[in-house]
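User: I'm writing a tutorial on reading structure tokens. Could you give me a worked example: one chain, its sequence, then its tokens, then a sentence or two explaining what the tokens reveal?
Assistant: Sure. Here is the example chain.
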Amino acid sequence: MQGFHVKSRHGLKVFYPLAFPVSETVLSSRIPEEETMSKRRSPCPLACTLDIIGDKWTLLVIRDMSFGRTQFKEFCESPEGIATNILSDRLTKLVDWGLAEKYILSESPCREGYRLTVTGESLRPVLNAIVKWGLENIEGTASLMKSHTSSINKGS
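And here are its predicted structure tokens:
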């Protein structure tokens, strides 16, 4: 059975089984431990994931990338109104964590764009689940970016 061991505050070693099997391919493409080690609260996969994508802006930037937005100015046009200093910080962190990559735009060699990596693309089912939950459970929510829904759903 796959899972992980955690040493509790009281020195006890506790085993947490995984609810689903994880392939060796997934395990080999993970974000390196040294990238997140200093920021970890625990080895719990949920806590570690939230340490990376759990703030109020990161998943929105990932959402925009999954909709095809690539340029800094396009991210700034999102309805949530992210501040430019926060956007710059999140883009840098997404690149550092290997969830996004920076590249030179072919139509304008002087400009850079951002796109999701394979690891970043693997978050599509997470985004879909959150959108579905929000639509079903939070009154007044709507999929405002419907023209791009097929883009986000291609990974589910």
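What the tokens reveal: The CA atoms of residues 99 and 120 lie 4 Å apart. The chain has nine helices and four strands.
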